[in-house]
Design a protein that fits this description.
Elements (H helix, E strand, L loop, with lengths): L2 E5 L6 H9 L16 E6 L3 H10 L3 E3 L2 E6 L15 H9 L2 E7 L15 H28 L6 H18 L11 H7 L10 E7 L11 H11 L2 E6 H8 L3 H11 L5 H12 L2 E6 L4 E8 L4 H8 L1 H5 L1 E8 H6 L4 H6 L4 E3 L9 E7 L2
Parallel strand pairs: 1-4, 1-5, 3-9, 5-6, 6-7
Antiparallel strand pairs: 2-4, 8-9, 10-11, 10-12
Helix pairs in contact: 1-8, 1-10, 4-5
């Protein structure tokens, strides 16, 4: 299962954002309580297409797509003073597939900022530099082992050259996600679990007093995100945590009063899903409507394997119709077939987000 690790400085609202996303009710003062293990929760990916298919087919079982969120613990209060993030934190980061970086913009005298002031760009850089230091340490250790040998193989010499290139890039205080790598080079580096190679999403954590106003530091943070080609999602952490604890009908009324069209958790989960490079395809019927997860670029044979290995092994054809075409033709497969939008595809067909697929196979 793919994981999104939530990171950030102490008192930035990481656990609050975790609760917004997961509705898990986790402790929001982890450092005061001495927590060393991360909070974890599986989250259903909000998808109006899936909800509509459930309404249409009225299945006995409904299974939405899921993604795991991990509220990472172990961040030292004194990371910004050069004491590092701690091995526990870094090990949890390395296990994550993508990073949700929470940056504090809210003011609260009862929750003092560890740096003494609100400066989102500075805070982002503090954590980013610690991640860069971690990757530099991994490279230095590996290069030392290579150099300790009397003679290196051609593969080791190639690895040394690539690692030295990565090292030079990191020494410029730039994360590895900004380094252009070939597919082969990316595969070569995969075993190192470099944390600055992981895709990142910035969450600007605001409070309810900062709706519709010019928030100090937000423009600078947006500029940083644009420069670094990182998506940024504003979230009103405390307010949305309280909202997530309400019943669905109460949420709708509360959001209407606030002029909010969509809960922040939906935006954040959707962005995280895309950050992981994921998409959904659907299988439908009276027994079950299910959203399956694939990586962007996966093929029909991969979709078959996601459902069951037997379907991939005995794959004949995939019957495919897009969700949009299905709805446009009165949610009728017969009409889709009549109009030619329900079609048969081979195993190399590139699955498109929202495809409705039925696998024909013979084992």
């Amino acid at each position: 299962m793919l994981k999104c690790g939530i990171i950030g400085l102490p008192l930035s609202g990481k656990s609050t954002v975790f609760n917004v996303v997961t509705r898990a009710g986790a402790e929001v003062k982890p450092y005061a309580s001495g927590r060393t293990e991360p909070n974890r929760a599986m989250v259903h990916v909000p998808d109006s297409r899936f909800d509509r298919l459930v309404q249409i087919f009225e299945p006995k079982k409904e299974t939405p797509a899921t993604v795991e969120f991990v509220d990472l613990a172990g961040l030292s209060r004194n990371a910004s003073k050069g004491e590092g993030l701690g091995n526990a934190f870094l090990s949890f980061v390395s296990e994550s597939d993508a990073l949700i970086h929470v940056v504090r913009l809210f003011e609260n005298d009862d929750v003092p900022h560890p740096e003494g002031s609100i400066d989102p760009v500075r805070d982002w850089n503090i954590v980013e530099m610690e991640l860069i230091f971690r990757d530099l340490g991994v490279i230095e250790n590996r290069l030392a082992r290579i150099e300790s040998k009397k003679k290196n193989t051609p593969a080791e010499e190639t690895e040394r050259a690539l690692l030295e290139r990565c090292q030079a890039h990191l020494l410029e205080e730039r994360p590895l996600r900004e380094l252009t790598l070939s597919d082969e080079e990316g595969r070569s580096l995969s075993g190192f679990a470099f944390v600055t190679l992981k895709p990142e999403l910035i969450v600007a954590n605001l409070d309810e007093s900062q709706t519709g106003v010019d928030v100090p530091g937000l423009s600078a943070l947006k500029g940083l995100a644009e420069e670094k080609a990182i998506r940024l999602v504003p979230v009103f952490g405390k307010m949305e945590m309280e909202l997530s604890e309400l019943a669905d009908d109460e949420q709708v009324e509360f959001m209407k009063d606030l002029g909010v069209e969509e809960p922040g958790r939906n935006r954040l989960i959707g962005e995280a899903y895309r950050l992981l490079g994921l998409m959904s395809f659907f299988t439908t019927g009276k027994d079950e409507v299910r959203a399956w997860t694939l990586h962007e670029g996966d093929r029909a044979i991969d979709a078959a394997g996601a459902i069951h290995s037997d379907l991939a092994r005995g794959f004949i054809r995939a019957q495919v119709v897009s969700y949009a075409d299905f709805i446009a033709h009165d949610a009728s497969l017969a009409k889709c077939r009549e109009k030619g939008v329900l079609r048969l595809e081979g195993k190399e067909y590139p699955v498109v987000d929202g495809d409705m697929i039925e696998i024909r196979f013979n084992v």
